[in-house]
Amino acid sequence: MKIFSLGLAMACVVGCSSSGSTNDGGTDAPSDVAADSGLSGATACADEANAVCALRDSCSPNYDNEVVYGSTATCVSRVTQSCTNALALSGTGATPTSTEACAKAYPDEACSDFFDDNPVSACVPQVGTLQNGATCGASGQCASTYCAVTSTTVCGTCQPLPVTGAACQVEADCGRDLACATPTVAQGDGGIPAPKCAAFVALNGACLTGYQPCQAGLSCVGDDEATMKQGTCQTSGTTVGAACDGSRKTMPSCYADMGLTCIPTAKGSAVGTCQKTTLAAANAPCGDIGSQPITGFAVCEAGGECVKTSSTATTGTCVAPAADGAACDNDPTKGPPCLSPAKCVVTGTGTAGTCTFPNAVACN
User: Crossing angle for the helix pair 41-59 and 72-86, nearest 10 degrees?
Assistant: First the structure.
């Protein structure tokens, strides 16, 4: 299940890269960035945050904002801070005017493009002045329009914009409009192939899970990764009660980004109907609900993480995200996670770290 921005990537805001400061009033970026044509950075960022969070809610009503942030209001608050700080980064090509133009363009973006990180032209990162190899915190600082940042750091380096076939670990490693296709089945003696950036496949196109992923809202039906048999991208179920196949062997599954899960109707079968995904609070059970067949599926709300005892477990317990500046752990069997766009930054070895809301000064 893909949840846009979870752990993932937050919305494309001022350079399509996480950047910002603490949300408790402590910030190294001025609250009112130098005006551009009479427009303040604070105003433009608030407008963009409201636009992107409204688009997220319209594309995934009462679900995605609740999963990632807990509420639309929290989405607006954190995206605004991230945007404001990004405008203060050295070398950025972003301005209050370009930010406002992006805000006005968001309502025209298709939901599938939004979830696949394919921004409308007005929201593509501006060209910055930093050359490849320079330290950056947002893609708008880079001449290449791409700042490569790992999942456990808040600062990275300017790099060439990723292309199809580039190595990746997470979606953010592929820049924009490319998926990090991740094989799950070994191929001969070579083991499981490494993940690579891949173009999204459109409706009715040939697809293969782990190699040629479908666009958001589509299911790859009839493919088989073990034999490398291709399937066809078909429209996922978008309404409660729609017929579905969780295995995607006979028909599409459900549109997960809209908060729908395919719940089987009989033991031993993956065929069933699309039902609303349950939002679970901290300390509540998550993952599969019931068994043989399951009667529901729950995901953690408000940036929480479903912590399971092992990688094969199908149920777990929701752990709330740690506050900015508090201890966290990137190990999914431990937690806690951090609330987007903060990352669990590891300073030494291991998986434990500190929730760090990206800071403008740290990347300058």
Answer: 140
**Cα distance between residue 25 and residue 32, in whole Å:** 14
Residue 102 tokens, joined: 């992006």
Cis peptide before 336 (omega within 30 of 0): yes
Do you find a cis peptide bond into 332, omega within 30 degrees of 0?
no
Q: Which segments of the chain does DSSP mark as H helices, in order?
A: 41-59, 64-68, 72-86, 96-105, 111-115
Angstrom distance (rounded) from CA 317 to CA 261: 19
The 10s digit of each residue's pLDDT in 7-54 is 333 334 444 333 333 333 333 333 333 445 678 999 999 999 999 999
Burial (CB count within 10 angstroms: exposed 0-12, middle 13-18, buried 19+), residue 323: middle
Please give the model's pTM, rounded to 2 decimal places.
Answer: 0.85
Beta bridge partners of 354: 327, 345
Please count the residues of the chain. 364
Contacts of 350 (CB under 8 A, 6+ apart): none
